[in-house]
Design a protein that fits this description.
Elements (H helix, E strand, L loop, with lengths): L5 H16 L9 E6 L4 E4 L15 E4 L4 E3 L8 H10 L5 E4 L3 H8 L9 H4 L14 H5 L2 H12 L10 E4 L3 E6 L2 H24 L8 H12 L8
Antiparallel strand pairs: 1-2, 1-5, 2-3, 3-4, 5-7, 6-7
Helix pairs in contact: 2-6, 3-7
Length: 231
């Protein structure tokens, strides 16, 4: 009997609807996937389908080789990037790619987003990293798979669970999380951090990094062993 992926498709569908709802993309920009680690498949938005007509049945289920397992539409053009990240970052259950305005602006400037204040430190203990720009050889190869390689290379010395977001130089942001919903949450947070940093640097181009003792305090009260934020 063919396994049912209805729940996985529903997860991906609901998470994709958050992209326009949260103002993270226009038209058909952006995509979300939801991963089933036990079955080693993920559901992802179909390519070029407008959010206002999207349904759960439209979600395309693919394996970790980016081959379609179930679905009648072509999966997102970014599917191979998602597959590469699921293979490399164990324990993540959702991935988001958007072209949100402020985060994309930092990506186009090829700059990491500096940790200037406690809002940033509440979520990350480092700058939001930015990859290297893709080489001509990589662009001429399997572009979407190479995008995944760019991100993975950027995390050779980073923990993707501690820093669940990245800027792909010249392109835009990717985020991830334990679930597709959490990946969307991180995409929203990333856009807000990018916006705040942009305004801060506009007000003071020489704005300095938040001192390390404040970075550690704000990050660890939410994410450390002795975290006490929330219920």
């Amino acid at each position: 009997m063919t396994p049912s992926y209805a729940d996985l498709r529903e997860q991906a569908f609901r998470a994709n609807l958050e992209i326009p709802r949260r103002g993270l993309a226009i038209y058909t920009f952006g995509n979300v996937s939801a991963f089933d680690a036990e079955r080693a498949v993920f559901a992802i938005k179909p390519s070029g389908v407008a959010y206002e007509v999207l349904t759960a049945a439209d979600m395309v289920v693919v394996d970790l080789d980016a081959k379609v397992v179930e679905g009648n539409l072509r999966p997102s053009s970014d599917t191979k990037t998602h597959a590469a990240l699921y293979r490399a970052f164990k324990g993540i259950g959702g991935i988001v790619h958007t072209h949100s305005t402020y985060a994309t602006a930092w990506a186009q400037a090829r700059l990491p987003i500096p940790i200037l204040g406690t809002t940033h430190a509440d979520h990350l203990a480092e700058d939001v990293p930015c990859t290297e720009i893709m080489s001509p050889d990589a662009v001429g190869g399997d572009y979407e798979a190479e995008t995944g390689t760019q991100i993975i290379d950027c995390f050779r010395t980073r923990d993707p669970h501690q820093t669940p977001m990245v800027l792909v130089a010249g392109h835009g942001p990717f985020t991830w999380g334990k679930t597709a919903d959490k990946a969307v949450y991180h995409a929203v947070v990333l856009e807000e951090l990018a916006k705040i940093a942009s305004i801060t640097r506009a007000l003071d181009p020489a704005a300095r990094r938040l001192p390390e003792h404040l970075v550690r305090k704000h990050f660890e009260r939410k994410h450390g062993k002795g975290a006490y934020y929330g219920q």
